[in-house]
Design a protein that fits this description.
This protein has about 130 residues and is an alpha/beta fold. It has a single domain (about 1-130), classed as Rossmann fold, CATH 3.40.50. It contains 6 helices and 5 strands; from the N terminus they run H-E-H-E-H-E-H-E-H-E-H. Strands 2-1-3-4-5 form a 5-stranded parallel β-sheet, with helices on both faces. Helix 2 links the parallel strand 1 and strand 2 (about 40-45). The chain is globular and about 30 Å long. Residues about 1-15 have low confidence and may be disordered.
């Protein structure tokens, strides 16, 4: 029984953040910005792969770019919600137009952040949702 308890606590420590992003500069920024969290980061560059990776149980939170190739972030979010209804998904977009936040929330995103990303605000959001 002790062995199972260890396994469970180890798996909690290994929870990862899935980052669906296709912009190289944003990926580098996120790698540096999220380093203090000491959490594994998993990167995908399209919406199809985001859906597939979200099926993995060690993913605790998703940063979802709205404009992704193959399947946009809103469609990927809708699909993920079918099998992971409670996972926090933070939408991120460089195209912050009126109504975009509402569209993201209506698609099933938990929260929304615009690019250029405010590092402090992003860390606050992640910490808030990773605690739950």
């Amino acid at each position: 029984m002790d062995k199972n308890d260890n396994t469970n606590s180890m798996s909690v420590k290994k929870k990862s953040i899935l980052i669906a992003e296709d912009d190289t500069f944003v990926i580098k920024f996120l790698e540096m910005a999220l380093k203090p969290l000491d959490t594994p980061l998993v990167f995908v560059d399209n919406g199809v792969d985001a859906v597939e990776k979200a099926k993995e149980s060690d993913v605790a939170l998703i940063l979802m770019d709205i404009k992704l190739p193959l399947k946009n972030g809103l469609d990927a979010t809708r699909e993920i919600r079918k099998f992971r209804p409670d996972i926090p998904i933070i939408a991120q977009t460089a195209f912050a137009l009126s109504g975009d936040e509402e569209k993201a929330l209506n698609a099933g995103c938990t929260d929304y952040i615009t690019k250029p990303i405010n590092r402090k605000r992003l860390l606050e959001m992640i910490n808030e949702y990773m605690k739950k």
